[in-house]
Amino acid sequence: MVEIKTDTALEAMRAAGRVVAEALTAARQAAAVGVRLRELDEVARTVLAEAGARSPFLGYQPSFAPTPFPAVICASVNDALVHGIPNDYRLRDGDLVSIDCGAELDGWTGDAAISFTVGTPRPADLALIAATQQALDAGIAAATVGHRIGDISHAVSTVARAAHCGMPTDFGGHGIGRQMHEDPHVPNRGRPGSGFPLRHGLALAIEPMLMAGGRNDYRTDPDGWTLRTIDGSRAAHIEHTIAITEDGPRILTLL
User: Under DSSP, is residue 218 helix (H, G, I), strand (E, B) or coil?
Assistant: First the structure.
């Protein structure tokens, strides 16, 4: 069931989204050569705790996962697409890092992700991150009253195709509000004019996941969570929680 939020609820989601943005900013600032992924998770935990927020990631166990997720961020490096578990891996010069984080505050949720490089960047990685950001921007621009979910999906996939990047077919964005994952599903591929109609008060997480090798398939690590590109190519993941409003899309996960 799709829940349309009141303006008051959207303001509460904005507060949760700001906490997410603060946690992501802090984790990115802490990311440097030699820093463990586990340390980035600790940074994000501190931000959530100081804000009085709960992590919707910690302990989360969807149907595909063999164990509950053990952290408050997903930290995916290089060929890891999404859902990477923060561990003792030390960041290296030139790594491409994607961090996904959520926060629940006063019963409402925000969810966002960033991708960035550590140390000396590879030009191809910067191009991949830029394409992923452009795909997200295009999806947000299409998220207007009177459009449909398929218009968002088509906008995202158009940018990905132009960049010759692959995207997983079975993961995408989602509705969000009282829970991190709500209806409707927001695929990263779709036909214009198809899917659920966009109305004022609908809150969505839009999240392009681009793979530089151009393939759409992936493999799952033995941990049952981390998804990696089949060909070892780099991947990037960028996400925002937005609200559909009569005045246009409103990003809820900004500082």
Answer: strand
Q: What is the pLDDT of residue 221?
A: 98
Reading across the β-sheet that carries 182-186, which strands appear in turn?
182-186, 173-175, 203-206, 240-243, 250-251
Please state, as a whole number, how many other Cβ atoms lie within 10 Å of the Cβ of residue 101: 32
pTM of the model: 0.98
pLDDT beneath 70: ranges in the chain: none
Q: How many residues does the chain have?
A: 255
One-letter amino acid for residue 182 of the chain = E
- SS3 category, 54: strand
Closest by CA position to 198, among listed 245, 145, 243: 145
Which CATH number applies to 7-251? 3.90.230.10
**Token pair 């790594």: residue:** 95
- Show the tokens assigned to 220: 């799952």
- What is the Cβ-side half-sphere exposure of residue 85, based on CA atoms within 13 angstroms? 17
Domain boundaries, given as residue ranges, for the chain? 7-251
What per-residue string of b and e applies to 113-125 under the rule 16 or more CB within 10 Å gives b? bbbbbbeeeeeeb
Contact between residue 48 and residue 22 where contact means Cβ atoms under 8 Å apart:
no
188-209 residue pLDDT tens: 999 999 999 999 999 999 999 9
Distance between first and last Cα of the chain = 30
- Token reading at 155: 């906008």
d(CA 255, CA 234): 28
